[in-house]
DNA sequence: GTTTTTGAACTGACTGGTCAGTGCAAAAAT
DNA sequence: ATTTTTGCACTGACCAGTCAGTTCAAAAAC
């Protein structure tokens, strides 16, 4: 018989197990890389048996892919939210960029391991999950590109900026500054880091200030 | 006899073999990661026997570490050269930064695989070669920090900029923009990319332009 | 004649993935 | 109300294959 013990989209127990596996995998892979991390390690850290990993995910690669989707989904939602709230409050496009910079920093602060792992894999070639990686990357970068384009359309940004390259550069600015912050100056506050990046974003570097 | 022909370190033949191994390892590891790359693969791509790898390097890790040192050494030299030439020509510190941005782009354009590999490893923790990684990172970033500090001292940059964070952000800007360029818009010219980054660096984004 | 390279065989530890079986809470049957 | 059945979620020993690193005699390069 169809037991139907938990009709609403998968049992709670299973979802909890998957979450534990995500959390175990993300830190281990961030530290060691995908290949150097064994399924046994992931299972052990998650506190489940190895078979459970394969009960919940078709393979180690699939676990990783779903982890990527899950994580970037959170980031993209956060960036959109930041941009939309700024718009709602009548802020300029620079304000929107600034809010997104902060949202990015908050995300990296909350999920540093995921960020490390993502950066480490993003530009590799010939990997099984490359298409997944590109899709989720595009989702996130598109939010930044959108704000830049709107800014150009509204005359707030120079029409001569290269939207794609500028978006990539902004993402890189935040990414590397934040990872450096985490790795080498963890005592600094998020506001400190945000202030430094705002200054750079708004071109307030040159001049006596 | 230790003939005059090879003062710096070892025979020419041996050095050539090591160079071939570097080149083979750098592309393979950039594509697949360190752990997923086998010594047999490296030897095969380099066109030497496996025994030769172990005759020239104590282990796979040591080969990788020396590769890191070698590569970042080239980058650091190139950055210094760019900064010094700008100074020699009487350029401003912004000019020096701009020249270093270009030098970074040229480097990434010439050694994309090395750059990928380096970025993928830089923020990992608990790895055998972590101290090597940090040392060489610091050598490179210090060049940027130095120019920023001189700019502050000379009153060209605001005294309120955070040198460390700004340097990291600038490096990130170039790194990510360049890797994106390589990966997703390889048809663009170096000058194009450089122009986009210059604009951002000099705060010529806002405004009708 | 010394240094460097070759190449193939070998070892021993490790790994992704499998699978027969267990535990258990809810459903069905009595 | 009690017993029986169902099937989901999980378990962990096991397997077949892989890989870093070793060894070494012989050849090649210098």
From TrEMBL, chains A, B:
> PROSITE patterns this protein is in?
HTH_TETR_2
Q: According to the lineage, what is the superkingdom?
A: Bacteria
**What are the protein's UniProt keywords?**
DNA-binding, Transcription, Transcription regulation
GO molecular function (one): transcription cis-regulatory region binding
Question: Where would I find the HTH tetR-type domain in this sequence?
Answer: 15-75
Q: Which residue spans does the record list as DNA-binding? A: 38-57
Classification via PANTHER family: HTH-TYPE TRANSCRIPTIONAL REGULATOR RUTR, MYCOFACTOCIN BIOSYNTHESIS TRANSCRIPTIONAL REGULATOR MFTR-RELATED
From the Swiss-Prot or TrEMBL record, give the protein name. Answer: TetR family transcriptional regulator
Species name for this entry? Streptomyces filipinensis
- Taxonomic lineage of this organism? Bacteria, Bacillati, Actinomycetota, Actinomycetes, Kitasatosporales
